[in-house]
Amino acid sequence: MSRQAGRGTENKKMNSELFTLTYGALVTQLCKDYENDEDVNKQLDKMGYNIGVRLIEDFLARSNVGKCHDFRETADVIAKIGFKMYLGITPSITNWSPAGDEFSLILENNPLVDFVELPDNHSSLIYSNLLCGVLRGALEMVQMAVDARFVQDTLKGDSVTEIRMKFIKRIEDNLPAGEE
Amino acid sequence: LLLSVVCFAPQNYPLYIRSVPTENELKFHYTVHTSLDVVDEKISAMGKALVDQRELYLGLLYPTEDYKVYGYVTNSRVKFVMVVDSSNTALRDNEIRSMFRKLHNSYTDIMCNPFYNPGDRIHSRAFDSMVNSMMMQVC
């Protein structure tokens, strides 16, 4: 019950400009280091994945949410608790596929892209791709394989930013025998 | 009528030049560049007082027959210069001041764009449209 002891639930504040500029510096450095945008996107996704697999532990410890029973519940938790906790925004959930295995997160404003204007020579760069990696990594740690990708981006002239999430499969626990 | 908006780097080379199309654009540039001398003069003359009051607006730099030139300098020595048609008397000092403030805010946003390298020429859609709207508004 006292799972959250020692790990405060209070929201520590951070200056948003510093955060945005830090992420911007990261992305532009990657753009310098890699020849093409696809490699940068891949690298961002990988970094996000590594963040996600760690962040999920922090998330579970702090938020005290239980097991989700279906994908809809998962979506709710991601949008209303996860995004709120780490980015201070609450994306809306829409466009459920009939089978209930795909949905969209709509971000009205994305704190990562304040001030950013994509230059013309980076038209295929997915600037916030880190977020997809984080979602993928975090959900993988709770036995869910998902695919996350940007389908709309305000940086590319769309009116909102949309992340499409697709449930792929449950990852079966490979627990050693006798442990359950 | 707002005729021209120019930003200068601390080293006095232009970062951004925008003016309404005219035949004698060269004369324009000449006017703006000479105004830089006045800016430097003003800074060194009242430099101390400026810092104390945190007043960035330099006011009317000099009037010529056709234009009035206004200046603004940030604490990081980035200069903004605006050229206004002399025949326009409706424009108040306060409005000029708030236009400069707007320009300054926009410039700050550009500096925060990670893809912009400080000291480069400014190529920004957001900045362009802001200047556009200022020119439209004043016309």
From TrEMBL, chain A:
Locations listed in the record: Endoplasmic reticulum; Golgi apparatus, cis-Golgi network
GO CC annotation: endoplasmic reticulum; Golgi apparatus; TRAPP complex
Keyword Phosphoprotein: no
GO biological process: Golgi vesicle transport
Highest taxon, organism lineage: Eukaryota
InterPro entries: Bet3 (IPR016721), NO_sig/Golgi_transp_ligand-bd (IPR024096), TRAPP_component (IPR007194)
Keyword Transport attached: yes
Gene3D superfamilies (alphabetical): Trafficking protein particle complex subunit 3
Keywords, comma-separated and alphabetical: Endoplasmic reticulum, ER-Golgi transport, Golgi apparatus, Lipoprotein, Palmitate, Transport
Subunit structure and binding partners: Homodimer.
Family: Belongs to the TRAPP small subunits family. BET3 subfamily.
Function: May play a role in vesicular transport from endoplasmic reticulum to Golgi.
Protein name: Trafficking protein particle complex subunit
This protein's encoding gene: LOC101867958
TrEMBL record, chain B:
Cellular localization per UniProt: Cytoplasm, Perinuclear region; Endoplasmic reticulum; Golgi apparatus, cis-Golgi network; Golgi apparatus
Main localization (coarse): cytoplasm
GO CC term, one of those recorded: Golgi apparatus
A Pfam family per the record: Sedlin_N
Coiled-coil ranges from the UniProt annotation: none
UniProt GO BP: endoplasmic reticulum to Golgi vesicle-mediated transport
Keywords: Cytoplasm, Endoplasmic reticulum, ER-Golgi transport, Golgi apparatus, Transport
CDD domains: TRAPPC2L (cd14854)
Annotated protein name in UniProt: Trafficking protein particle complex subunit
Source organism: Melopsittacus undulatus (Budgerigar)
Organism taxonomic ancestry: Eukaryota, Metazoa, Chordata, Craniata, Vertebrata
